[in-house]
Design a protein that fits this description.
This protein is an alpha+beta fold and about 250 residues long. Helices cover about 25% and strands about 25% of the residues. The protein has two domains: about 15-215, Jelly Rolls, CATH 2.60.120; about 215-250, no CATH class. Helix 5 runs antiparallel to helix 6 (about 235-245). It binds 2-oxoglutaric acid and fe (ii) ion (FE2). Fe (ii) ion binds near residues 127, 129 and 179.
């Protein structure tokens, strides 16, 4: 594998679409959800963050992703949980995905905490998690109570039952399987997403696109820090707002 590449896919696009999304109801206890939310509250300031969509009128973020794998923070705090997720993913692969990777060495590529408010959605129906093997997705909020809308959608999944009924419910799927999320219509939807891949266990503050060797992405901030010092206070504040969470290839 060239060190700047993603690992080659182990499953064809067509075979990936034929795999089911496996439900793991009540995967997390309410105590574990409290621990994860507390960890997010305490650590998110130190982690990479990306506002994926924002309101055209107010500029408020509608979908914010916090990369809890920054510096492997989540990985160090919740190793047992990540091992449980991987064991469940491998079992789902053996039982339902054609056992295409259950013996492959995989590690967490990224741990993402998603916060989605009304209007936030992942609309692209052919979206998939390129470069990863398994995607593990856990609902942290209470559907119908903390939020409405925001249904997880897997085309051709074969039934209309919701994937997430209660907080703590999880799903696991082949990362190359298409999936999307309908717009949230009320409240705040929170999910934890872990992608496992054949690359190195990453510590960078984003979703790494480089399977091995030093990550080439670094905060744009690092490239312009000197010039920030030369700006007026107003210009610097505007630049800081612009730079927050943005990254660039070096
Ligand atoms: O929000 C979700 O349930 C899934 C999010 C997702 O697929 C992604 O961020 O790639
Ligand atoms: Fe995804």
């Amino acid at each position: 594998m060239a060190d700047s590449d993603l690992p080659p896919s182990r499953i064809s696009a067509a075979d990936a679409q034929a795999t089911p999304v496996v439900r793991l109801p009540a995967f997390l206890s309410s105590e574990e959800i409290v621990e994860i939310d507390a960890f997010h509250a305490a650590q998110s300031h130190a982690c990479g963050r990306l506002a994926k969509a924002s309101c055209a009128v107010t500029g408020a973020a509608l979908w914010t992703t916090t990369y809890l794998s920054t510096d492997r923070r989540f990985n160090a705090r919740f190793p047992g949980l990540l091992a449980r997720m991987l064991a469940a993913a491998r079992a789902a692969d053996r039982a339902h995905f054609g056992d295409y990777a259950s013996r492959v060495d995989v590690v967490p590529r990224v741990v993402e905490y998603h916060t989605v408010t009304p209007g936030g959605a992942l609309k692209h129906e052919q979206h998939y998690d390129s470069g990863s093997i398994y995607t593990f997705d856990v609902m942290l909020a209470r559907p119908g109570d903390d939020f409405d809308g925001g249904e997880f959608v897997a085309p051709d999944a074969g039934d209309e039952e919701p994937f997430f009924v209660n907080s703590g419910d999880a799903i696991v799927f082949c990362s190359h399987r298409h999936h999307s999320v309908r717009p949230v219509t009320r409240g705040t939807r929170r999910v934890l997403v872990v992608e496992f891949w054949e690359g190195e266990e990453r510590a960078c503050g984003h979703r790494c696109e480089r399977a091995s060797g030093p990550c080439r992405v670094r905060p744009l901030r690092a490239m312009v820090e000197e010039s920030l010092g030369e700006m007026s206070e107003d210009d610097r504040a505007a630049a800081e707002r612009f730079l927050r969470g943005r990254t660039v290839l070096s």
